[in-house]
Amino acid sequence: MACGCFVAVWVMGRPIPSSVSAPREPAFATIQEVSFDNNRAAEIEATIVEGYAVLSPGGGSMVTAVSVAVGDTVRAGAQLYSVDGVAVWAVAGVTPLYRALGPGDKGGDVETLQAFLNAYFADDRLAVTGKVDADTGRAIREWQDNTGMEPDGTVDPGQFALIGGEFVAREVSVAVGMPAPALGTVVVAGADRLGSLRVTASEDVTAGEYMFVASGEQLRVQLDGGEWTAANHDEALAFVLAFDAASSGDGSQPGGGTGVGAGDGVRDVVVEGRLALATPINVAGLPPAALVSGSEGGACAWLLREGVWEDETTRAAGDGRSAETLTEMVGGIDVVGISLAGSALVADGTLAGRNVLLDPASFVDTAACR
After folding, report:
1. Which of 72, 126, 216, 357 gives the lowest tally of CB atoms within 10 Å of its CB?
2. Which residues contact 226 (CB under 8 A, 6 or more apart)?
3. What gap in Å lies between CA 90 and CA 79, rounded to an integer?
4. What CATH number matches the domain at 57-190, 1.10.540.10, 1.10.101.10, 2.30.110.10, 1.20.120.680?
5. What is the largest CA-CA distance in the chain?
């Protein structure tokens, strides 16, 4: 008797009936080739890191130039805007520049200055030592000369706005001709960032690419080595922010910290939906009428066991049925109670059109179909 591979599965959009009466007598059901996406309930748990808020260092009377626009990437060493013709530069670090710095000065603010100069020149010419040494003094004067300032080797803290790190501008609050922003005013607000992403499914899933769908929106995700990642970071952020905005009740996108270099504020977003294979696979399945309800919302098919084959052929002969009709049964099937909600080996589709004999009398109680 030929041996085949069979998996009882069903497809999203063709739901498993909650209750189906099992046939009283043995009956054949035709195996179908169906598209299977391994669909199941799931949820995404994500963290959103609030965007940086760049605060004005104060001073001056009028904004004379703006060098950053919405959507631009803000980096240390870049010019943000100018007040009275004097540029304000982005400087990354944990310590703001709060005093004039010149030869011999020491401190955490000197480390911030040295890191700024390295970023401006796009090299690592300075060791970040926290002391304005001869090399640092030369770099200060070169920077001043390049930008049209008097190269006196002393920096003015009013020329620097602290950022926490590279970010994308979501809002720019300065414009040419407007009064110079007061000390502590937010001049550039950064876009929110995606911190972490985790997918939890109602049942275990194997590694691969999946599509997460919720409220008509979808996001491609991948499971590899036990870790979930999004196929596209920007798309993942937009997906999560859409549900974050919806949960806020006003449809707006929240974001923007309030402190100097803010951006460490984190909020959690949970999205409930469905998880399915990104590329469905072809498998062999049974029609709904051949199924009976199983455990935890699953469904089962009661298949004739190989061990009772001879008994069935004898009974078929006694009922006037030819033994040839029974040979259409898929050979080698010796399992019963296959759960449609579970995972198993995938058939290659060659079983489509074959018949399988359903027989409640041969059912053996299993955990899958209790």
Report:
1. 216
2. none
3. 6
4. 1.10.101.10
5. 111
